[in-house]
Amino acid sequence: MSKELEKNSQPGKAQDAAIGVDLSVRLPGRVELEFTDRQTLNNMATEYHYMHRPVHQRSCPFGYQVRFDDSIFMPDGKPCGFIIFASIHFVRQRCLFGYAGLPTKWQVLSLARMWLHDDLPRNTATTVLGKVLRVQGHERISQVGHDWLKVHPPKYPEQPYHVRLINSYADKTHGHEGIIYQAANFERIGEVKSQRRHKNTRGPGFDDHTLIQYVYRLPEPRMTINDVKGAQLHIFAA
Asked: Coil, helix or strand for 225?
């Protein structure tokens, strides 16, 4: 998680005015998410995210570029931002998933990378999270839950497959406290240590970092994989 995210999640109209933001226009109407191929996302993650490391291909990464005022680039030529989700690399966690009565491993996604340009208006981070996680339509499915089924349709549809939990970490050792997660109604689970076995996801130099774990719970959607394959949903057009 970038320090830019923590910064632009803080209130401050002066910051908005300083970069020429029209305060009469609501922010959600100016921010859009554009589904983007994984190579482009990983290239941006390698260049801009503080870890400077792509998300491993085995975890089926997918995600979105941030489009602000109809542009994916800021005036300085850098991207507005991006958010990447992926499958998790462990099979269970007590009280969260992988045990009887809880979501399975296949119903959990990791919010693996997120970066936003420092000059975006305040609350852009929570706006992005709201757009991708908010449940909409009579299907009661989120944007990320819907797109995950398109990217990675279930091999065994008779078993539970809808995304029910989003898992992420704020790197406390790197100065992150998870302010945007708190603002977006994530649940704080506790602190853990980054382990050596996680080199495939976090890379060298991050051993023993203190991570604050956050999760976001999603309801069971009122649709099946057949609805995704058979007809495009239009609940995310706005």
From this structure: helix
